[in-house]
Each structure stands twice: as structure tokens, then as C-alpha cells.
Amino acid sequence: MALRLLRCLAAAALAVAALAAPAAAKTLLAAKTLRVAPHSDLKIVDPIWTTALITVNHGYMIYDTLFALDAKLNVQPQMVDRYALSADKLTWTFTLRDGLEWHDGAPVTAEDCIASLKRWGARDALGQKLIAYVKDFAAPDAKTIRMTLKEPYGFVLQALAKPGASVPFMMPKRVAETDPAKQITDYTGSGPFIFKQDEWRPGEKAVYVKNPKYRPRAEPASGMAGGKIAKVDRVEWIWIADPQTQVNALLNGEVDVIEQPPHDLLPLLAADNNIELFVWNPPGRQYALRFNVLAQPFDNPKVRQAVAYALNQKDMLQSVIGDPKWYQECKSLFPCGSPLESTKGFEDKFESNFAKARALLQEAGYDGTPIVIMQSTDIVALSNLAPVAKALMEKAGFKVDVQAMDWQTLVSRRTKKDPPAAGGWHAFLTSWASVDVLDPVATAFLNASCDKALFGWPCDAELERLRDAFARETDPAKQKAIAEAVQLREVEYPTHLQLGQYTQPIAFRKGVSGILAGPSIAFWNVEVQ
Amino acid sequence: MTGYILRRLAATVPVMLIVAVLVFLMLRLTPGDPAAIIAGDNANAEQIAQIRTRLGLDQPLFTQFFIWFANILHGDFGESFFFKKTVAELIASRIEPTIALSLFTITLAVVIAVPLGVLAAYKQGTWIDKIVMGFSVLGFSVPVFVIGYSLIYLFAIKLNWLPVQGYQRIADGLGGFLIRLLLPALTLSVIYIALIARMTRASVIDVLGEDYIRTARAKGQVEIKVLFRHALKNAAVPIVTVIGLGVALLIGGVVVTESVFTIPGLGRLTVDAVLARDYPTIQAVILLFSFVYVLINLIIDLIYTVVDPRIRY
Question: For residue A516, which of A33, A508, A37, A501 has the smallest C-alpha distance?
């Protein structure tokens, strides 16, 4: 009986091994496949319709842009061959490169790009700002885009090259004419990879194959600019929700890359000789505390200034990132390492100067109203910030009520203007890519246009005047001066507080090479052995 | 019997109706706005409002309910807010991994637990009994994810025998399908092995004291036949109940296991849908789970009549 059972088990094991063999062979054949564990599942594939980062990354895979930022965050032409600005600074002329084709083989035309810019301009804040300055677009020939402005605007190239959320990706005219409020259903791009819609399984994986017709620029790849050469035949984004499983899968060779390994698991990866960590985005991300200026007592700028005195960046960063290797204290409103970096006005802030904070609260007549801070508990990189902020603010004399919730609840609640006691809020903590806050126009939290501003609804004519002046200015030196003025105004009228920067390394196994440093993650130029 | 089955099936209708109303209301009372989530972090109020209108979330609550309910009656569960697919398509694409994992798990649990329970009962009070019961307590106490990570560490990372994660559809090869399912099924089965082994032991111990067992032994029956033909058969009703409950409880267990092992099943779909407030998907999946619960209960009741012919409906 026992012998018979053993024989049956052995036969079953052999059968399973034999049946598994074709799968192993398939893996060997697919040697030029790069398997990536991305930071999120790809659910929405219209990068103009949503600002979700995973969709932006998808956009960079299959679409191209007129301009792009290089590794040093300088604007470089991408689909554009040459461009010119008229002497009166009102007419921009962009000429497309030769040989650009959509994935379906049709040539990329100026009409396609104009339609794409219009759709982007209907959705994105920076795009809306640009379109507001545009008198009209014209396509004198198939390769030339002419953009006439109503008045000079200093932010044209930066807007067209913007990374981060809502990138102006170029799409065929028939796709770009989709109602901006609706999602596209045709995923034809002109980028270095083609989206395999038939293999896309939301919640499981997204697949891209090399675009054999892509014509890269001659310059070497740098950031999102330069020659985008796909060096693998296929890229698979394998969605692994659990961070520990992501790490296990990398250690076991089941994926080649983890896009965003959590900081607490980095020591585990660093200890393995077969794994490399690389900071692809040196400016990293910036933490921010957002105020709701409609909610008393934060309607008084002095109370908000008191928070800037009470907090310190080191405690905040230590609580979420831990290892100083991955974070940087930075008092500048605009990211440290970026052209507009400056500490002006913030020199004495973020030092946990509780005496100064108490004095400001007294001056403001703070009556002990509890400050409701929304705490996102399901995002590891954010969850510890609120309790630290509470402890520091309480030392300065605030009463703080930290309310725990998941991020999606926070996202919903932050749109409510109700008083905090009736389901509203005073403040919450978040983070954003440093490339999204490089200047006063791009920084969404600096929009102080009252009801039209983002949640928090700051309302300050001076800040808006300075942001407009920055947008109009075309001289970089003068732009820098205006940015400093914005920062000084922000000290007086805080819309949010910058709480330091951190970098997020990518982890990959040995045998993977060519991952580029830049403002967004890119999978062209990457080789796998 | 047919009349009984039909009556039980008809009784599912009011149950499903109550579940539908409760799920709908609970989701709407839960904080979180799908439109804000879809729009992304940098969307403004106008963009969020546009999406809310497109999804019909700006309609009064009862209007939303009646539209949804009327569509269900027509067999239309709606379209997912996030995945540009109908909910029916989504569920269809996710159901295979969950069914496969559940069946594999419960088969593994029954095949291991029932003999273990019988053995423990037969060797009551000996070290074998103590080991089996010790394992049983361990199986109850250790959380599923701890078992999962431990098995991954041993069998995937250290021994490199099995993959860490992922699922291969059966159509893509039986070998890969089984190999990828082995660790998750083993992980999930531990608690059910503990549960079923314990119940089997208790039931068999009860039965072993009966006169007919003494009679069977007196007639010279070999011990294995006494145990499996006479004792186990008569101890089967509570064991079947526990197995049935186990199948029903699996629906909850697969959520964690599917997350740890990256299996794109209904458990993961439910978690993703809840986190994203994807109302149509959550509603449909919970209705489906409720129906499965009712169906499992019915099947258990019917199995009673097979294992114990005295039971009649």
C-alpha cells in the first residue's frame, strides 16, 4: 500500500516536472524581456485624463513629447527638430523631425500635435495657463507647428517639456480629438514601445514591445530627452501589490527591477550581492504639509507661520525614511539642487523654535481650537509624519487632533470646505515629485487663486501677481529673482510647508544596465542579460 | 428533494436583495470619492466634478440605486469605474485563479487533515496525538501571511524549488499551473488542516466508543477498516459541516493569500476595488460571494443526506 502510494507520488512529481518544462523553455527564449515590478497597478491608460504617476510612466513608454527634460533638468527638443521664437516674442515655430511615425505606420503631423496640445491644455493646470496665452495654432505644412501668443509668455518650453503629472504627450489627431473629459480607447503612440493591449490584464500585468520603426534622436539618452533606444524586445510590468513579495521576487530572479522598493526593506536588498540600488531621480520627492486656509485658526497667516517654527525637517524625515542616506533637509521652497533653490526667508524656520511659535500663537490670539490633521495610514512613506507633526505642534502650544484614515478617504475629504468639526480639515501631509515643484507656476500648492486653487484654497493676490510675473518673464535671471520674491511672500502667507526631500532608489538585479537618471523613470536604454 | 432544493434556491432571492441594499448603502456611507481617486492627486475640483457626473455619482442616492438594481435585473452589473471593462468581464477574468486556489486548498486540507485526525483519535493520548494537536493549535494561531512568508523563504528563496509569486492559467500549461499554486494552497490550507483534523479527531473519538465499533472489532475486522469504514463514516456529519464552513471561510482567506502570492483572483480584485472605491465591482463581487455562501450551505445540507441516510428533507 505504502509502496503503491510512493510510486503514485513519484509519477505525479515527474508528470508535473515534465509539464513545467515548456514554461522554463519559454523563459529562456524570452531572454530580452525586462520584467519590472512597478509602484502601482496600471488601471487607467490615458495620461491626459488622469494624473496618476503609473499612467505617466505608461505614457513615456508609448508616446513621445515635443520637448523633454534631460538628466540635468534642462529643456531639450525631442520630437522637434528645430524651433524659433519671433523677435516680438509672440510667435513660436516648431519643426518636427523627419521620419516620425505613429505605431500604425502613419506619419506624425503638425495637425496631430496641435490636437494633442489642445487636449492637454484642457486638462493640465500648466497647459491651461499656456493655452490662455495662445491666440491660435496653425500648421502651415505637415511638419510645422506655429503657435501665436496673445502676449509674451516665458514658460512655453518648460510647459511643453514638463515631466511629472499630465505630460503633454503627442497622440494621433483622431485620438487627441477625444473629449478631454472622456478616456481614450485607441492607444496608438509614436514612442519607443508599443502597448500590447491584448496582453494587458489590469491587476496582473501590462506588456510593451519594442517599436521597430521608432527613430531615436542622435544624441545620447539623457533623462527623458535624447536617443530613446529600446534595447529589450519586451517590457513586462508585473503588478505585485505586496512590497515584501516584490523583494522576494527580485531576490529569486522572478523580476529584474523593483521600481520603488520601500525604504524599510532597502537594507535587505543592499545586503544581497546580486542586487543593485540606484537613485535615478536625484531631486527625489519633497514632503509637504498643506494648510486649509479657510479653516480657523489657519485663516490667520500668523498661526500657519507658527507651524513653520514648530516643525523641524529632521524629525519628520527620520520618522518615515530613517536612513539619512536617503533624505535631505532642505529649507528651500523649490527643490534643493534645482535652479531656483534658495533659503531666503526660511533660514530660521523648521528649527523647532517653540518659543517663537508660542509667541506667534499668542499674537494671533489662538484660542486652543483643535487642529485636525488628516493622517494617511495606508501609505508607509506618509503614515508617521502626522504623529510627529502633532508632537512638535503640541510642544508649541497647539492642540492637535490627528484623524487616521486611508489615503483615498483623505483624497475625498480634502475637497470638503466644511469646518473641521463638521467633516472638514485643517492640514494633511503628502509628498510629490520634486520635478512637479520646480517653479512658482508648476507648484500646484502655490496657486493662491481662492476658489480656483487646489484644496486648501489659499487666496492671496500678491502671490498670484508674482506667479503671473514669473510666467510672463522670459529672462532666467529675472525669473530667479521673482521666484525668490514668491518664496518671501510664501513665508508671510504660507500655503504649505516644505518638509524636506528624499530619494527613492530603484532596485535591480545584476545583469540589468542602462537605467537612466532623470525626472521620470524610463525603460529605454535599459539592457538585460 | 427537488421541491426542497427549489425552495432553498428561491429563499436566496430575499437574501440577495437584502445584501444588495446593504452593500449599496454601506459603500455610499463609506468615506471616499471614486471621482477624486480616478482624477489623481493634482486634479482640480472642476475635473473631479466632471468625472462624478460621468459616473452618475451626482445623482440622488435612490436614483443611483434604482438604476443599478434595474440593470442587475437585466443581468448588467455595470462597468468598473477604473478598468474600462464590464464588471462581468472583470469577474470572469479573475474567477479561475480563485476557484483553482480554493479547490486546491480544500483538497489538500481534506487529504491531509482527515487521516491525521483519524490517526490522532486512534492514538489518543500518545505522542502522535499530541503532535497532531500541537500542529493544530499552531495552525490556528499563526497568521496566514506569516505562514506564507515562511514557506516562501524556505521553498523559494533558500531551496529555490518553487516560485515566489505569480499565477499561470491552466490553459498555459498544467505543470506551471500546479507549481505556482502549490505554495499558496499549502499556506492557505494550514488553518483548514488544523480545523478539520481537530474536528475529525473529536468526532472519531466519540464514535470509537460506540457499540458497533466494538462489534466490528469482535467480528475480526482489520483496524484500518474499522477506522475508515465504520468510525469515519459515522463521524462524517460534523466533519462535512466543518469542511463546508472551511470552503465558505476560504473566500476571506484567499484575499490575504492572493496578495502575498500575487494571484490575480477575486480576493485581490475585491481589495483593489475597495481601496479605489470602485462601487460597481465591489457590489457585484459581494453579491457573488453571498450567492456562493448560500449555495455552499445548500450543498452541505444535501451532502448530509448522502453521508447519513437518516436525514431527509
Answer: A508
Asked whether the beta carbons of A423 and A369 are under 8 A apart, the reply is no
- The label of the residue with cell 523583494 reads A247
> In sequence order, what DSSP letters do the residues of A403-466 get, joined into one string?
EEE-HHHHHHHTT--S-GGGT--SEEEEEEEGGGGSSTTT-GGG--BGGGSSTT--B-HHHHHH
A8 vs A489: CA distance, rounded Å: 79
Residues of A in contact with B40 (CB under 8 A): 50-52, 55, 165
Determine which helix (DSSP H) or strand (DSSP E) holds B206, and give its type and residue range: helix B174-208
CA A112, A118, A123: angle at the middle one, nearest 5? 130
The H or E element containing residue A468 is helix A461-472
Find cell 504623529 and name the residue. Answer: A387
Supply the DSSP symbol for B229: I
Q: Residue holding cell 456529519? A: B237
Say if B50 is an interface residue toward chain A (CB within 8 Å): yes
pLDDT digits (tens, 9 = 90+) for A60-111: 999 999 999 999 889 999 999 999 999 999 999 999 999 999 999 999 999 9
Contact with chain A for residue B264, Cβ under 8 A: yes
Which residue pairs from A177-183 have beta carbons closer than 8 angstroms and sit at least 24 positions apart in sequence? A177/A115, A177/A119, A178/A119, A180/A48, A180/A49, A180/A119, A180/A122, A180/A123, A181/B50, A181/B51, A181/B54, A182/A49, A182/B54, A183/A44, A183/A45, A183/A46, A183/A49, A183/B84
Q: Residue A166: which of B42, B149, B179 has the nearest Cβ? A: B42
Please name the amino acid found at residue B266: L
- Residue partners of A13: CB distance under 8 A and separation at least 6: none
> pTM for this one?
0.81
What is the spatial distance between Cα B70 and Cα B12, in angstroms, rounded to a whole number?
Answer: 18
Q: How many Å apart are CA B88 and CA B90, to the nearest integer?
A: 5
Rounded Cα distance between A66 and A33, Å, is 28
Q: Taking CB atoms and an 8 Å cutoff, what residues of chain B touch A445? A: none
Pairs across A and B, CB distance < 8 A: 150
pLDDT in tens, B93-139: 899 999 999 999 999 999 999 999 999 999 999 999 999 999 999 98
Nearest of A287, A239, A188 to residue A36 by alpha carbon: A239
Residues 488-517 of A with CB under 8 A from B: none
